[in-house]
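Support request, please re-run this one:
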Amino acid sequence: MSETAVPADFVTALLSVRDAAQHPLMEYEEIPAPTRLSPWNAALTLRTREENYAQPRSTGRFVILHDPHTQPGWNGTFRVVAHMRSQIDAEMCNDPLLSEAIWHWAHDCLEEAGAGYHDITGTVTREISESFGGLDLRGATLHVELRASWTPYTAYLGEHLSAWSELMCRTAGITAAQHIIGVPLS
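Re-run finished. Output below.
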């Protein structure tokens, strides 16, 4: 059995992601990646880091898939698959444009980070939870989930991770000022 050399483009992608995992409001952790989707892969779990909250308001995954021979539908040798789940203001649950706005924020964050991409697909899901009985004090909570995948133009994927991190913070309503000051801004 011969060992296959790690493709140079995949090494470039991993190094660029490692260098980009520096968002001050996020925690990053390497996790096992799905092995059946591509010959080369890596994955991270992400969560917001906030001093005044016991649980992160946003969690997610960032998966890198690489096939030097490409795959149908990718239109490239890399595919990024990302997921996030964010708690947002419950009053937004009635906004008919919420899903569309979050989808556009994903595009905005990728473009603002300089992450070149194409063939983006995805879904936005809303989850409304209302508490009753002894849990009435909690009131209603709203979570949104965004699942997306896209093909990057290059092997430099650091900008893509930065964009996803920013999107997770933006969706949860977390700003750099909150982190620096350590108190929620209303």
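The chain has four helices and six strands. The chain has a mean pLDDT of 86.
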